[in-house]
Amino acid sequence: MFFNFKSGVGRMAHDPSVFVVDTHATRPAVPPRLGKQKKQSGVAQTLLFVLVTLALLGVFFEAFFIYRLYQSEYVSITDSKEMPDTTDPDGRLLPSKPVAHLTDAQDAHHDPHVMAWSVIAEPLLYEMKYKDRHLIIQKEGYYYIYSKVYYSQGGAFCHSVMMRTKMYAGKGISLLEAREYLSKKDKEDKSFSNSFLAGVFYLSQNDAIYVNVSSTKQIISHRSYENVFGAYMI
Ligand SMILES: *[C@@H]1O[C@H](CO)[C@@H](O)[C@H](O)[C@H]1NC(C)=O
C-alpha cells in the first residue's frame, strides 16, 4: 500500500535528518541536502497531483459510464418489441391479473339448471375463457368468485356456484350455495328476490366454474345487470 505509517515512522527514527533539517534553527542548512529534500518534495507533489488527477478522472469516467448504462437501458426498454402491451386497442390499461365479469342478455340460452351468459354484452374476459356456460381458468391461483341472480319466488329456490375439475373426474362440486324455502302462506303472494354469493377459492388451470340454479325458469332476465357472474385472481 502507498500509506504505510509504520514504515514511515521507522524511517524517521533511522534517518531523522530528512525531517528535522528545516525546523532546526541552530544548525546551518546544508545546501546539497536541502536540494535533495526540495527535489523529493517536488517529486511527492507531482505524484500527489498525478494521483488526484487519476482519481478525479476515475470518478468522471465512472459517472459517464453509469450515465451511458442508464441511457442504453432506457433505449432498450422503449425500443423492445417483446414488452407485453399494457393497453387494449381502445387505449385502456389491461388488468394486472385474470378477471371475468359476465352478464345476462337475450343471447344467453340457459340450460334447465345451468345459467348461460351473454357474449354480445361485451363481457369482461381477461386471461379466462367462457365456453358452454362455464368460465375456464387459465392461470392457477386464488380467485374471488361471485354471482348475483334475480328470481321469482315459488316455494323453493337454490342458487349455487359450482366447479368442475379434472381431479374429481369432472364432477360438479358446490363452492357456494344459497337456498330459500317458503311456507305455504308466503307462497300465495308471488314476489321476487335476489341471491348473492361470493368467496375465495384456489383454482387450477382448466378448472371450470359455473352457476347452477334449481330452475332457470325462475330467473328474471329483463336487465342484463340483474344477473351476473364473475371472478378475479387475488
Ligand atoms: C344443478 O343443481 C341441481 C340441484 O339444484 C342438481 O340436481 C344438478 O345436478 C346440478 N347440475 C349441475 C350441472 O351441477
TrEMBL record:
User: What family is it from?
Assistant: Belongs to the tumor necrosis factor family.
Task: Supply one GO molecular-function term.
Answer: cytokine activity
Principal localization reads membrane
Task: Please give the biological process terms from Gene Ontology that the record holds.
Answer: immune response
Where does it reside? Answer: Membrane
Enumerate the spans annotated as THD domain: 98-234
The UniProt entry, under PANTHER family, shows:
TUMOR NECROSIS FACTOR FAMILY MEMBER, TUMOR NECROSIS FACTOR LIGAND SUPERFAMILY MEMBER 14
Tell me any Pfam family this protein matches: TNF
List the PROSITE patterns hit by this protein, alphabetically: THD_2
Q: What is this protein called?
A: THD domain-containing protein
Membrane-crossing residue ranges in chain numbering: 46-70
Recorded source organism is: Xiphophorus couchianus
Q: Name one GO cellular component term.
A: membrane
Keyword Membrane included in the entry's annotation: yes
Does Transmembrane helix appear among the keywords? yes
Keywords attached to this Swiss-Prot or TrEMBL record, sorted alphabetically, are: Cytokine, Membrane, Transmembrane, Transmembrane helix
